[in-house]
Every structure is written in structure tokens, then in C-alpha cells.
Design brief:
globular; four-stranded antiparallel β-sheet; alpha+beta; single chain
Length: 194
């Protein structure tokens, strides 16, 4: 099978996050994701997330389905390059300054990018490129130049991967609701069959 080389900068836009002053943090508005929100190739919304006034809203740095979020600057080389792809739209969620959005220029590239940025190959590439004294950074140039190899026609593989990811998201949503369901049933005094 012959593989084709794709340069990340040719198939995706790379978008920086929002910088803010701590005095602008509020209790509602735009949720700002930070490095801790990227866990096990999954975007986790947390109770201690930062919120900024709605005046910070920026449609470009809003997270959309198909975007891959990447930790681009951190004190830990091991955390640098962690990535997670958004498979479920959440309104008014943007990224902070130490993250990047990798936004595919076409839907067909979503799973190709997601898989590549979650690979050991990408982790080795990032560790070799990491620059900084106390804060490690991935430069825009290194991200744009990252090469991904895939078959000429990878649409079938992309559809299969997307379906699997959607099922994983559905299972997470079901699991997140199980404690609520259990409390609801107990509160309603439902009798369970023995």
C-alpha cells in the first residue's frame, strides 16, 4: 500500500488561545479550557474551569466538533503535546493561551489529525522539538511542518474511527448519568425486583 504525506499546516488551521487577566475571571460566561482539561485523549469540563465575560467571545477560538485541542505550552515535557478531539459541541467554550486548536480544513481530515496527534510518533516529534527553559513550547512552525502519512484514500478508515469515537462519547454520557439515575430511582422509592 502506497502512503501519501500530508503536512499538518496544509490540512488544518492552527489557532491560538485567549490571554486574559485574572481580574477578568467571573462565575459564568465563556468557559476557558486549560491543559488540565485534556485527559486521556478526552476533553473534560471541570467544576474549577475558568470563566470570562461574554465580551471575550471569539468565534475563531470557539471549539467546534472536529477540532483537536493541543497542549502547546507547559512546564512539563510529558504534558506537552497532549491532544483531544471534540466530538460533541458545547456552546461558549474556548481555549486558553497555552493551548492550540487544530481545525481541519475539510471534515475528511478530522480523524486523520486526531489519530496522528494521539500517536507515539507525534509524542516523540514534540519531545524532540520542545523549546524553553522553564516553560516548554511547541512553535507554530513545528506544528505546521508535522508530517502525517496515510493511504491515498483513507475515508473508510476515517468513518470507522469517527463512529467508534461517537460511541465512546455516548458511553461516557451514559456513565456520567448513572449516579443521577440511581439517585432519582431511590428518591422516587422505586421497588427493585429481587
Amino acid at each position: 500500500m502506497e502512503l501519501k504525506k500530508y503536512r499538518l499546516g496544509d490540512i488544518a488551521e492552527i489557532i491560538g488561545g485567549v490571554s486574559y487577566s485574572p481580574k477578568d475571571i467571573c462565575t459564568g460566561g465563556i468557559r476557558i479550557l486549560r491543559g488540565g482539561n485534556i485527559q486521556n485523549q478526552h476533553i473534560e469540563l471541570k467544576t474549577d474551569d475558568v470563566f470570562l465575560p461574554i465580551s471575550y467571545k471569539n468565534n475563531i477560538s470557539q471549539i467546534y466538533v472536529g477540532d483537536t485541542i493541543l497542549v502547546a505550552s507547559t512546564g512539563s515535557v510529558d504534558v506537552l503535546g497532549k491532544a483531544a478531539t471534540c466530538f460533541q459541541y458545547t456552546e461558549d467554550v474556548q481555549i486558553g493561551a497555552f493551548l492550540r486548536i487544530i481545525r481541519p480544513k475539510a471534515d475528511k481530515y478530522t480523524m486523520l489529525i486526531s489519530s496522528a496527534l494521539s500517536s507515539d510518533y507525534f509524542k516523540r516529534y514534540i519531545k524532540a522539538q520542545a523549546k524553553g527553559t522553564s516553560i516548554n513550547n511547541i512553535t507554530l512552525g513545528y506544528l505546521r511542518d508535522f508530517e502525517i502519512y496515510a493511504p491515498h484514500d483513507f475515508t473508510g478508515l476515517s468513518h470507522l474511527s469517527a463512529n467508534i469515537e461517537n460511541k465512546i462519547c455516548l458511553n461516557r454520557a451514559i456513565n456520567d448519568n448513572l449516579p443521577w439515575l440511581d439517585r432519582s430511582l431511590k428518591g422516587a422509592k422505586v421497588r427493585f425486583a429481587a
